[in-house]
Structure formats: structure tokens, C-alpha cells
């Protein structure tokens, strides 16, 4: 008979259908472990439960622990002679060790796996262990980690690399513009023909209609606008109010009063200045426009950036920043006029809107925007058909700023006769940027960028590079904000994207109770997607609360399933079990499932004979609809 001995090692993982509370009860009541030993076993690390056993007895113990949800391995022990040999020959090269005999797959729980991958479901054990180690490192920062390579500065500060890339793109665009400026008329003439040929070729290759391809590549919107806005549930009332106010003031006031009244009192600076109208004109000039083109151009820009900024910083902060930026723009314009000796008279919302653009550059720097490039040349004034050019918002706003800076310098040098208030735009955008930095709005932008990358990864296809980047961003965000509900949910979806995983299960079980408190409609939707992947319920308290939410939303089928899960859970507290039995019976009765309702009423009476709900259950069973079931 062989003297080889074996040990039973708990892997540190519980089965997917076992929670920690259930495991504690089993270890204490059935295995007779002391509390200190239970804490050690459930610490998440490998623990030797039994050792010095023969193979038959070791496998018997393994099966015993497995039925309690403790995933264990049977591992051969090293003999004393082998241990001595290992100590006396430290120079020996380490050999590849195959996965231990009797290994249990963490996904499908198939036992006795001896390969690097599970023969049943194909899970790669090394990858599973790497994920487990990464999670342990996140949960315990002081835990010893394997030596990591030194990260570069931009790996530690990815946001700064992002901004640097944006400035590099701006420089490249300006360089190309300077090099090809002489060919611009020829380009504008030939581009429509080349573009239509490209659409025709694409339609032939892909089989799509030319109309569909044109809708994907052209726009009739004459100003830039953002795509894929995620925060559309909030209506930006202040932005819409400012647009409406400017329109009403122009058509109902400016067109009905004499121009002298406006120029002498309301523009900045007034032609007839007084101690009253000069400070007042700092505000009034922000709501006046020189013509319909001036008005509608400004309002389109305000709509494009103001709606997104208001959804993120709030209505009153947007309104205050709008006015402050407009005033700063007017004052910087006045200063530039003093330096050049030119008259300082200005009107329009451009400075204030430039301030909102400055806030947008800080708060939404990661957003992609559609920049309309006219493709019909001079005819675009009649038919505003433009090509969709997708650029980062920081690039677009940076180009606008540099264009204003160039125009402002030319005005100071006297080489430009333009009546555009470039310095008002510059003052507004600088003021908006500084206000955003002072109020630390940029911190919120970094968090949202991680969420945005995570959302893109969830929607990405198999093999896309966004998957790894999105997961990394979400984990980085969770190290800074471990209770961020949106990041937890996105990571749960990402870890469950292609198959069920232990980490995905844990994340869903953590995020659904949070959603019940924050957004009950979303909680119902998320539980549905969780159940489709993992085919199991949650803890009794969460399932009971979900049942009440489904009931309030008239989803009686889902409410019944949640209550049945509570009733079948052996860890459900008696008080909750009593209520779940009675509520399940009432819902089933309302759905005319008389047999099932009768069963739950009787179960309630049997388990809680002295409770008030038992009396009510008895009363319900006396109803005529249950008459034929009395002897069942």
C-alpha cells in the first residue's frame, strides 16, 4: 500500500449559489468550527482544512465540504524526503507544475480537472487566478503584490496625455491649413465631386443605399454639436430660457424701438454714457444682437454647448457663469480698445457663450463633436449641406480660441478692420475656463471620462481594443470611488459580457441593492439582465424589496418569482418568511392561480400558526373559490 498522503485545501472561493452567511452557518453548526477558524477560512485565501489523509478519505472530505459551497482541492503532500531534497538543492530549475488533481472548476464546478483549462466549459484557470489576485489587491492594498514594472508619467496621468494629443492635433490642423491655403479654392471646387464618387463606390461595395450613406456622412446643422449624450434625462431649462429671452428681446424689443435708444443706453459702452447706463450696459449688451444672422448663430452655439454644460454643473451655476463670462469678455474688449485707441462699443452674447465653451472644454474635454464642413462652397449659404467631421471637443474649441487670438492680435496691430469682438470672445473663454478650474469641475470630468470609456467597452464588439481600456478605466475609477454605482454596474456588465463570472456575479449582487435605493426602475431592469446570465436570485432582503417594487409596477409575474425565491431560501428570517408566504399567496390569488395560492396560504398557517397573517390566510381559504381545494 502506498504511503502517499493528501491534504484538502479550500480554494478561498464559494460556489455561486452559496453566500458567505450560509457558509458560516454550515461551518459552525455542521463542521463544528470555532469563530476564529471560520474567519480564517472565509478570509478569501487558500486554507488547509485537512491533511495527512489517504486519497479516498481526502476525496470524501472534499465532497463533504463541496456540498456546503466550499470549493476545495485535493493536493498530494510532499514527503519528508522530498522536502529535504528541495532544501539541499536550491539551484534546481523550477519545473512546470500541472494543475492539482481533483481541481474544481470555478465556473461549472466540474471536479477532478487536471489540465490548464476546464474540460467541460473551457475556462482558463490561470486567467481566473489572475482576476482573483487583481480583486484581492484592490480589496487589500497592503497585501503583497508581485513586482510591477515602473509606469511612465503619462501612464500615471492619462488625462494629461489626452490633452497633449489634442494640442498636437490642433497644431497639425493649423500646419496643414498653412501649407494648403493656396489650394483651398481648388479643393472646395473638386471636393463635392470626389465626395459623391466616394459615396457611390461605398454603396457598390457595401450594398447600402446611397441615401443611407449620405445620411451617415452629411448634416444640415450649421454649427458643431455633440454626439451620444448620455445625460439626456435632465431638461436644461436655463439654456432654453436664455435662448428664448434673446429671441424675444430681438424680435419684440430691438425691432420695435429706435436704434438710438439702444446705442445710447444699452450697448457697451453706450454712445451717451451716464453713471447709470454704463454699469447697466455690462448686462444689457449680452442680450442684444446686430441682426438675425448674429442672433441665430449665437443661439445655435449656445444650444450646442449650453445644454451639455447645464446637465453637468446645474442651472444656477450655469446662469451665474454665463453672466460673469460675458462681463469679463466686455471688460477685456474695452481694455483692448483702450490700447489701440479705437472706440469701444459692443453688443451680443458671444462673450458669455464663449465662457460656456470654456467650461465645456474643461468639463467635457473627452467628448467627441461633429464639426460641419461645408461641401458646396459658396452655395452652402443657400443650401447648408456639410460633411460630418468628428473631432474631440477640446480640439474644436482650441481652434476657435486660436482663431479669435489671431484675429485679436491683428486688431491690436491695426492690420484688421473686422468688427468681430475677438477680445470679448477671448475674455469669455478664459473666464469660463478659470471658473471651471476654480470650482474643480475638472475633477468631475475625469470621473465621467472613465465612465464614458467603460460604457464604450460594454457596447464594443468581441476583440475590440476598447474592452481592456474600458475595464482599466472602471477599475481606476473604483479605486478612487469604490461605491460609484454607475461604475460598479458597468464593470458588472463588462465582466458578464461574454460569459458568467464570479466577479460579475459579485458586482451585480453589490450594485442591485444600491439601485433599489437610488433608481428602482433601473433596479428592475438590471435584475432582469443579471438573472438572464446567472439564473439565480439574490439575498432574501434584496429579493423581498424587489418583489415589492415589481408589485407596485404591476409586474405580478416577476413579483411572484422574487417572493418564491425568498420563501425557498433557508436563510430567510422568520418574520420576512411569514410576510413573503402571505404576499405570494395574495398575488397568486389575484392572478387566479388558486392551487398555488392555496399552497402558500397553507404553508403560512403551518409555519406560523399563531401570527395575525395566519388568521388572515385561514380567512382567505374559507372563500368559496377555495372550496374545492379544502381536502387537497
Strand runs, count? 7
**From the helix content, strand content and strand pairing, which structural class follows?**
alpha+beta
Largest sheet: 4 strands, antiparallel
Kindly estimate the percentage of residues that lie in beta strands according to DSSP.
5-15%
Distance between the termini: 59 Å
Outline type: elongated
Oligomer state of the chains in this structure: single chain
Cα-atom Rg, whole angstroms? 35 Å
Biggest sheet strand order reads 4-7-6-5
Q: Given the structure, what is the number of helices? A: 27
Query: Low-confidence spans: pLDDT under 50, at least 5 residues?
Result: 81-101, 137-148
**Mean of residue pLDDT?**
80
Portion in helices: 55-70%
Structure description:
Helix 13 crosses helix 14, helix 15 runs antiparallel to helix 16 and helix 15 runs parallel beside helix 17. The longest helix has 26 residues. It is built from 27 helices and seven strands.
Key terms:
632 residues, 27 helices, 3-stranded antiparallel β-sheet, 4-stranded antiparallel β-sheet, alpha+beta
Brief summary:
This protein is an alpha+beta fold. It has helices spanning 20-29, 35-41, 55-66, 80-88, 125-139, 153-156, 158-180, 184-206, 210-217, 237-254, 259-265, 277-284, 292-313, 315-340, 350-363, 393-413, 422-438, 441-459, 466-480, 485-495, 502-518, 520-534, 540-552, 556-568, 574-590, 594-607, 612-621, and strands at residues 6-14, 47-53, 70-76, 218-219, 225-226, 368-374, 386-392.
Describe the SSE topology.
Elements: E1 6-14, H1 20-29, H2 35-41, E2 47-53, H3 55-66, E3 70-76, H4 80-88, H5 125-139, H6 153-156, H7 158-180, H8 184-206, H9 210-217, E4 218-219, E5 225-226, H10 237-254, H11 259-265, H12 277-284, H13 292-313, H14 315-340, H15 350-363, E6 368-374, E7 386-392, H16 393-413, H17 422-438, H18 441-459, H19 466-480, H20 485-495, H21 502-518, H22 520-534, H23 540-552, H24 556-568, H25 574-590, H26 594-607, H27 612-621
Antiparallel strand pairs: 1-2, 1-3, 4-7, 5-6, 6-7
Amino acid at each position: 500500500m502506498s504511503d502517499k498522503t493528501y491534504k484538502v485545501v479550500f480554494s478561498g472561493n464559494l460556489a455561486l449559489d452559496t453566500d458567505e452567511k450560509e457558509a458560516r452557518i454550515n461551518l459552525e453548526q455542521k463542521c463544528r468550527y470555532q469563530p476564529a477558524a471560520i474567519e480564517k477560512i472565509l478570509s478569501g485565501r487558500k486554507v488547509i482544512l485537512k491533511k495527512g489523509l489517504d486519497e479516498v478519505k481526502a476525496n470524501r472530505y472534499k465532497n463533504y465540504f463541496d456540498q456546503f459551497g466550499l470549493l476545495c482541492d485535493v493536493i498530494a503532500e510532499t514527503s519528508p524526503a522530498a522536502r529535504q531534497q528541495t532544501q539541499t538543492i536550491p539551484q534546481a530549475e523550477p519545473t512546470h507544475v500541472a494543475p492539482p488533481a481533483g481541481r474544481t472548476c470555478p465556473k461549472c464546478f466540474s471536479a477532478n480537472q487536471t489540465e490548464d483549462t476546464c474540460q467541460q466549459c473551457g475556462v482558463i484557470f490561470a486567467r481566473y487566478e489572475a482576476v482573483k489576485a487583481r480583486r484581492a489587491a484592490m480589496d487589500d492594498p497592503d497585501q503583497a503584490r508581485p513586482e510591477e514594472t515602473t509606469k511612465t508619467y503619462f501612464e500615471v496621468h492619462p488625462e494629461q496625455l489626452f490633452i497633449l494629443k489634442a494640442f498636437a492635433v490642433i497644431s497639425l490642423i493649423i500646419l496643414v491649413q498653412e501649407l494648403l491655403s493656396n489650394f483651398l479654392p481648388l479643393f472646395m471646387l473638386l471636393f463635392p465631386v470626389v465626395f459623391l464618387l466616394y459615396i457611390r463606390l461605398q454603396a457598390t461595395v457595401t450594398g447600402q443605399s446611397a441615401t443611407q450613406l449620405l445620411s451617415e456622412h452629411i448634416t444640415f446643422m450649421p454649427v458643431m454639436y455633440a454626439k451620444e449624450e448620455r445625460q439626456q434625462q435632465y431638461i436644461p431649462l436655463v439654456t432654453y430660457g436664455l435662448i428664448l429671452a434673446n429671441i424675444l428681446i430681438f424680435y419684440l424689443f430691438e425691432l420695435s424701438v429706435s436704434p438710438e435708444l439702444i446705442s445710447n443706453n444699452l450697448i457697451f459702452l453706450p454712445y451717451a454714457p451716464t453713471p447709470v447706463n454704463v454699469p447697466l450696459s455690462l448686462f444689457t449688451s449680452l442680450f442684444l444682437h446686430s441682426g438675425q444672422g448674429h442672433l441665430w448663430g449665437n443661439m445655435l452655439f449656445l444650444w450646442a454647448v449650453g445644454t451639455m454644460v447645464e446637465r453637468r454643473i446645474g442651472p444656477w451655476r450655469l446662469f451665474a457663469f454665463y453672466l460673469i463670462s460675458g462681463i469679463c469678455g466686455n471688460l477685456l474688449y474695452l481694455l483692448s480698445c483702450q490700447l489701440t485707441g479705437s472706440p469701444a462699443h459692443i453688443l451680443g452674447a458671444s462673450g458669455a457663450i464663449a465662457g460656456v465653451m470654456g467650461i465645456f472644454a474643461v468639463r467635457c474635454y473627452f467628448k467627441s463633436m461633429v464639426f460641419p464642413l461645408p461641401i458646396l462652397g459658396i452655395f452652402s449659404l443657400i443650401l447648408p449641406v456639410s460633411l460630418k467631421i468628428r473631432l474631440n471637443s477640446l480640439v474644436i474649441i482650441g481652434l476657435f480660441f486660436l482663431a479669435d487670438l489671431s484675429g485679436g492680435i491683428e486688431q491690436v496691430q491695426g492690420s484688421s478692420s473686422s468688427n468681430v469682438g475677438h477680445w470679448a470672445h477671448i475674455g469669455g473663454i478664459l473666464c469660463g475656463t478659470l471658473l471651471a478650474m476654480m470650482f474643480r469641475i475638472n475633477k468631475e470630468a475625469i470621473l465621467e471620462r472613465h465612465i464614458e470609456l467603460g460604457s464604450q467597452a460594454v457596447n464594443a464588439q468581441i476583440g475590440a481594443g476598447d474592452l481592456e481600456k474600458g475595464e482599466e478605466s472602471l477599475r481606476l475609477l473604483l479605486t478612487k470611488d469604490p461605491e460609484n454605482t454607475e461604475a460598479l454596474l458597468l464593470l458588472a456588465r463588462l465582466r458578464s459580457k461574454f460569459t458568467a463570472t464570479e466577479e460579475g456575479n459579485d458586482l451585480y449582487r453589490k450594485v442591485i441593492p444600491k439601485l433599489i435605493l437610488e433608481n428602482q426602475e433601473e433596479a428592475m431592469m438590471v435584475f432582469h439582465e443579471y438573472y438572464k446570465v446567472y439564473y439565480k436570485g439574490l439575498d432574501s432582503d434584496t429579493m423581498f424589496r424587489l418583489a415589492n417594487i415589481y408589485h407596485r409596477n404591476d409586474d405580478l409575474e416577476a413579483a411572484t418569482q422574487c417572493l418564491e425565491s425568498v420563501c425557498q431560501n433557508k436563510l430567510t428570517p422568520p418574520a420576512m418568511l411569514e410576510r413573503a408566504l402571505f404576499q405570494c399567496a395574495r398575488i397568486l390569488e389575484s392572478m387566479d392561480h388558486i392551487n398555488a395560492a392555496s399552497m402558500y396560504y397553507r404553508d403560512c398557517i403551518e409555519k406560523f400558526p399563531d401570527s395575525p397573517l395566519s388568521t388572515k390566510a385561514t380567512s382567505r381559504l374559507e372563500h368559496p373559490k377555495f372550496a374545492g381545494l379544502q381536502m387537497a
